[in-house]
Write the structure tokens for this entry.
Amino acid sequence: MNAGGSRLDDAYTVSIRIAVIDTDSGFVTVLAKRAEAAGWSLSHSSGPVPPRDLVALKLNALLIDPVLLGDEAWSYLERVASMLPELALIVVTGRSTVAQRVRGLRLGVDDWMTKPCHPEEAMARVEAVSRRHTRGRREVESGPLTAGELEIRPDRFQAFAGKEPLDLTRREFELLYLLAEERSQVLEREKIYQRVWGYAMAHGDRSVDVFVRKLRQKLEKHSPSWSYIHTHFGIGYRFEPESLAPVPATESAVATEPAPLAEDVSQSFHKLATSK
């Protein structure tokens, strides 16, 4: 095997089971060779596979070109995403519009790639999304986190302020959970992006800042008396719950002036008596 193949073997150390629904023979052939070299298992279909059959395959990821499904594409993607929430669902297709990509991502698609694309990039994205799903399963198995007025429930992918849900998107929840899990630690933007989005952040990408801003808006709406996410300019963000409510005066604070001595009290009574 050539040097490029050796590097590929080093890059993909975890066996992953993927299925590809596509009629692009060139892309599928090269991808299959790369998958075999990495020790992955790949199955291929030129038409839609019922979601119940996908369950039997015990897949980590599904790559699909929705063009093959025609008018049924959106409903199929939604069924797969809802029935197999632990499956990494990746669209690999030709030219698409922003509206189409946004619709797919909102239906539950984890990633969207545009052809022509390099098979090694496709594999890297599969690995990244699969890693996020694996981390998500670990989060579900762990208990809730509490911070300030928040209760963060990884088993529901939701957070609550009191009993009121914050109505977070999946990515907003993952961002909040990551920050809360690393409480008091300053996380660099690049590290946040890699752990939430699953791959390296492109130069100039402001996704982390945008999502932090949206998350802060929801936190401020539902828990206005607390501040949770703090900015470290030029570096990243830190999660640390801080109460914004004014501190009530305590008894010790009220009694700051010394009480009059007994002698002073008797002198005051003596003055009052002699003045009458």
Observations:
- Residues 139-243 form a domain with the Arc Repressor Mutant, subunit A fold (CATH 1.10.10.10).
- DSSP finds eleven helices and twelve strands in the chain.
